[in-house]
Amino acid sequence: MKKVLSVFLFLFSFFLMRSQFTPTYTGKPIYQIITKRAGVTLGNIKVELFPNIAYYHTRNFDSLVNVHFYDTTAFHRAIPNFMIQGGDPNSRHGAISTWGFGQAGQPTVNAEFTVAKHLRGRLSAARSSNINSATSQFFICVANNPNLDGNYSVYGQVISGLNFADTIALCPKMTNYTNTPIQKVEMFITRIGSNDSIPNAPILVSPPSGTVNIDTTVSTQLKWNPVNGAVFYHLDVSTDSMFVWDVIRSVNLTSLSYYLNNLNSSTEYFWRITANNGGRSSQSQVWRLNTRSIGFNSNLNTHNLINPQIIVYPNPSKGIFSFLNLEKGNQILIYNINGKLIKELKINESTLNLDMTGNSQGNYIYKIFKNKTELKSGTLIVN
Question: 329: exposed, middle or buried (C-beta count within 10 Å: 0-12, 13-18, 19+)?
Fold first, then answer.
């Protein structure tokens, strides 16, 4: 009875302290995880969390640290080339068979699935089959785990001491509990500061701002340069330069490009990229592009189907394009997006394999002629 009462009083005081603590973040809160084995310090793992990406998981972890909840809990699951997991209150004094199952009544945190990847060193929330069942347990990836992306909530990363996580993952395991270290590895977590750095503003690459006559029948590739420390990027595309109304794209991305499609003709679009480092964000310049009008005709940027039998595939491509149903004597001209002629080909067979692998990624214009009459034109997209 005394044991039940003491557990009740502990949980009551824990929830009371937790409810009174409302964390605020100026950037990424930093914590040190001191790991001990048989009372001897194994190493210090420093982590920073991502409140700008997974605010509720960050707040949950922070409030638990504030009441010393994690102290003497164990890294009870350690798998080489995968991850180490800990933070279960059962691992303080409970039977080993209960480690990892948590305790009834622990507050849960709803999933915050994002495009943030489970890279080596990333910290993520452990859970059951219920996606909204995360409590106190977390895991640290000791390898890239793309199979976890979009299924678990990434909310931090190791900034130093990842080698100690490797040591824990590789330590000898029990016979009956094959992923549990023979010697208990305890953790003691304290908050030690904040990383208030702001990522550099992303630099946009292509298509150049002010590009006109964008072909709406194919995808337009937007590209930007990487930003050091960015966890992911956010793309906005709108017909409003202030991005207040008519935002047609608003997506998070880990890639450095995006294929924009289903655009309206005769329309001006604006786009920008925001870099998110988990705690702060910065925004690129706003670039604009204009789509061509229906029936537009010029010496370069026409798109017609006078000869629809001519087929170009695959498009987009890594750089090799096949032209089918050509005729001997056809001429193919290839232009870059600025209108400069870069290839001129005379056709002797019905099929042509065009090699663009030596050219930069982006959009190119092709035009096919027969006796100076244009048969077909369009856009080639090199990935």
Answer: exposed
